[in-house]
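Weekly modeling sync, notes
Attendees: S.R. (lead), two postdocs, one rotation student

Agenda item 3: backlog of single-chain predictions. S.R. asked that every request posted to the team notebook include the full sequence so nobody has to chase files. The rotation student volunteered to paste the first one in as an example of the format we agreed on. Action items at the bottom.

Example entry:
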Amino acid sequence: MKELVDYIVKGLVDSPDDVNVYEENAYGSTILEISVGGDDMGRVIGRRGQVINSIRTIVKAASTNSQERYTVELLES
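Predicted structure, as returned to the notebook:
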């Protein structure tokens, strides 16, 4: 799942080398934390959060067959 989020976010931003996706296991679920360069933060968030919410929806749909629960968070740099 980490690779999927990394692929999507790198396609959205101007500087894909600054994209990092961290994976943490906590409280029975997996947290995917996205870190991007300061100039690309708006591209990942989108208008009224539409882009980040779409990424969350894709992750939820991709994980329906697995027993893992995933949470996607965007870290401020």
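Discussion: group reviewed the output briefly. The radius of gyration is 12 Å.
Action items: rotation student to repeat for the remaining queue; S.R. to check formatting next week.
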